[in-house]
Backbone:
């Protein structure tokens, strides 16, 4: 059983809808990440949170809005998305973001497959 | 800048034959390197990691990788492929971001295993 749980697993939405993706980690980690995985492209880092504080926004459009209420939960709020936003969205967590955490692996959830109509 | 290059987009093997997935890295200092596997409709699972200890790293499911600094390579191998190994494999280098660990992913190699 994965230590990182993402819901829903699949989501179909119209361009004018508002929806949220949820991620929960049960590993006691302090850092959480959102990635976008599109066909034939490398995994793209979107956001990074460390102890609930956002430490990285990788030039993500404002129609994606992350929220991290505590170290175990991460949300990605979506609104007025575009067809090119259809992708697999992956959440990950890792132990910490200090220099000691430099070589700590990230643990991934199974992702949310998002389709924009 | 740190990066990884996976030399093959697809690799096809027969069940029971050896597997070789190639990865070259570029790094200005001693890197941390990982291999992840992704099965269909699943997230990424860590196979193994190299963090400047032993250059031959053993991972899960019989996979191993050898760090060769002179060749800037970190190839993934397995002596005998199983059908269940069919998946996409990602070579990853870890680099420090601004206060966080950033993973830079290769473009992936899809492993096909035939009976």
Residues:
């Amino acid at each position: 059983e994965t230590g990182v749980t993402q819901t829903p697993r699949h989501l179909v939405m119209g361009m004018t809808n508002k929806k949220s993706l949820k991620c929960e980690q049960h590993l006691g980690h302090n850092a959480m990440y959102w990635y976008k995985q599109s066909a034939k492209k490398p995994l793209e880092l979107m956001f990074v949170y460390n102890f609930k504080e956002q430490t990285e926004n990788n030039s993500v459009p404002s129609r994606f809005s992350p929220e991290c209420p505590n170290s175990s939960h991460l949300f990605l709020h979506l609104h007025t998305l575009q067809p090119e936003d259809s992708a697999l969205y992956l959440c990950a967590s890792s132990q910490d973001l200090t220099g000691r955490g430099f070589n700590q692996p990230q643990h991934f959830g199974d992702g949310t497959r998002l389709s924009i109509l | 800048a740190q990066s990884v290059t996976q030399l093959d987009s697809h690799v096809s093997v027969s069940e029971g034959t050896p597997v070789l997935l190639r990865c070259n890295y570029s790094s200005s200092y001693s890197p941390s390197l990982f291999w992840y596997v992704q099965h269909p409709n699943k997230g990424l699972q860590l196979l193994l990691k190299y963090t400047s200890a032993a250059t031959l790293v053993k991972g899960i499911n019989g996979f191993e990788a050898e760090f060769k600094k002179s060749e800037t390579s970190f190839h993934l191998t397995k002596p005998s492929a199983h059908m269940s190994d069919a998946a996409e494999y990602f070579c990853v280098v870890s680099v420090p971001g601004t206060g966080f660990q950033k993973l830079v992913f290769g473009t992936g190699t899809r492993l096909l295993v035939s009976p």
Remarks:
- The first strand of chain A starts at residue 4 and ends at 7.
- DSSP finds no helices and eleven strands in chain A.
- Chain A touches chain B at residues 2, 4, 6, 31, 41-43, 45, 48, 50, 55-56, 90, 92, 94, 97, 99, 101-111, 113 (CB under 8 Å).
- The CA atoms of residues 94 and 106 of chain A lie 5 Å apart.
